[in-house]
Specification:
5 strands, 11% strand, globular, SGNH_hydro, Arylesterase
Length: 217
């Protein structure tokens, strides 16, 4: 009799345990189904490094970013040869048409290559940041460096602009994604300035955590 009772008790315990597991699994599934999906719009405001210079646009790092973040809308507002002044002129229309939650600013390289004064660079970037923030968008600034042949003083002043702005506006600053790529000739186009197709996935993986962090900030 005692053996029968223990067996019955074990069967009841097993039934209750399995039922509880099923209830918890169903509740968890329901939570996932009911959880809102956060879908943001990200505007990339850049130059040839983000416009996919020298290759089909669908092979550039911005397109690869779309593949990594399918829940978000990635708008590529990059133009080859763009300066900070040009980006500033185009930004109002881009903001109006895309209404981004985040603006990734990858500009300044062409300012540096043309030897524009760092104070002009800072003025334009300041206006870009404030314009984006006034429209309710977060801003992620990407650091830009100029080649060393421009002289250490100019190079230092130029790069410091990005760090100053990141501190003044309390925004994230992504390190220059060309640092390691530019040193590897196998990842560069013949002009020695632009990354090739093989470098695009590396740029995407470099920028991905910075963009996701900025979205969650």
């Amino acid at each position: 009799m005692a053996l029968v009772f223990r067996t019955l008790l074990l069967d009841i315990q097993s039934f209750l345990f399995l039922s509880l597991k099923r209830i918890l699994a169903a509740a968890f599934t329901l939570m996932l189904m009911c959880a809102p999906t956060y879908a943001a719009t990200v505007l990339i405001l850049g130059d040839s490094l983000s416009a996919g210079y020298g290759m089909p646009e669908n092979q550039g790092w911005v397109q690869l970013l779309r593949d990594e973040l399918p829940q978000h809308t990635i708008v590529n507002g990059s133009v080859s040869g763009e300066t900070t002044a040009g980006g500033l002129r185009r930004l109002p229309n881009l903001l109006a048409s895309s209404q981004p939650d985040l603006v990734v600013v990858e500009l300044g390289g062409n300012d540096g290559l043309r030897g524009f004064p760092p104070n002009q660079l800072k003025s334009n970037l300041t206006k870009i940041i404030t314009l984006a923030e006034d429209q309710g968008a977060k801003v992620l600034l990407t650091e830009i460096m100029v080649p060393p042949n421009y002289g250490p003083r100019y190079s230092k002043m130029f790069t410091e602009v990005y760090h100053q702005l990141a501190g003044e506006y309390a925004i994230n600053l992504a390190p220059f994604f060309m640092q390691e790529i530019a040193a590897d000739k196998s990842l560069m186009q013949r002009d020695g300035i632009h990354p090739n197709e093989q470098a695009q996935s590396k740029i995407t993986q470099w920028m991905l955590p910075w963009i996701t962090e900025a979205l969650d900030k």
